[in-house]
Prior knowledge:
By secondary structure, this protein is mainly α. The protein is 75% helix and 0% strand. The protein is built from 13 helices and no strands. It has helices spanning 2-29, 35-40, 47-56, 63-75, 89-124, 129-143, 146-160, 183-186, 193-231, 234-241, 246-283, 289-299, 302-330.
Amino acid sequence: MKSSGVLNKLGSLVFTLWLLSLVSFFLIRMIPGDPVRLMVGDRGITEESYQEIKKNLGLDKHILFQYKDYVVKLAKFDLGTSFITRVSVWEEFKEKLKATAELSFFAMFIAISLGLLLGIYAAVKRGTLVDKTLMTGSVVGFSMPIFWWGLILILYVSVRWGLTPVSGRLSAITDIDSVTGFMLIDAWFSEEPWLAFKDAVMHLILPSIVLATVPLASIARMTRSSFVDVLSEDYIRTAYSKGLSKSKVYFKHALRNALLPVVTVIGLMMGALLTGAILTETIFSWPGLGRWLLSAVESRDFPVIQAGIFLIGSLVMILNFLIDIVYKWVNPRLRV
């Protein structure tokens, strides 16, 4: 049973990756626009030069042969070279991933910590004005358009009040050598580590809040719902009858069981962060995967789009697999 289950999961994974390669390859080619014309811009070129560039990029072949070449290279983990920068797509992806990972980590930290606290507090105060206010706020947060929320925060927090920078990862006057690619770590290798670290944190605040809004709302609602259900169980009443304090009942007995559905939501939200990062990174000029892919779509940079979608999709599937392992660890009944 165990071996067949593993084989089924592997088969499903391979099939999903194949579908992902189909989508990433053919969907971009349905968008109007000639990548060669976009590359040369307004410069006039002869037909011979146009055909030569097209041949060098491999765009002169039939689309099915292009897809065959793409799959063969993908099997060898050759993601190709960007049409625009002429740099390896894998090298670009690694650099952009660091920026997105740093932003996503802090956004998820905000979402999980506040989401759990607010959800538990709402469950404890269920039926009160506090509970209704928090849950109404979570609905608003879940429904709020990311681009609108980001622009509002920039307008007031950055422009009007001057509390945080408007965009980017660092100020122009801050000089940091890229050692790891993570600004908060690289800041400590600079000449003025504390000032550089503070600058990097200030640039992280607004995009992290914007990116964390939807996951925070979802985690808070699920935590509240799950916690309310757990508090009505018989073993909770037994714990109270033994004279245990509310804090011990909540955090020692109720929380672990209430976390079971919340872990699943957290896993789904971690995958959603990568898609939500496209808008967030665009609004705040954050040089991560989202902005990288958007620029590639605008310039019809096929190798970047194909590889970017495939790699991001693979990351989401890996995250879901890891969350499945964590879920089984949290719930011992699933280990059997």
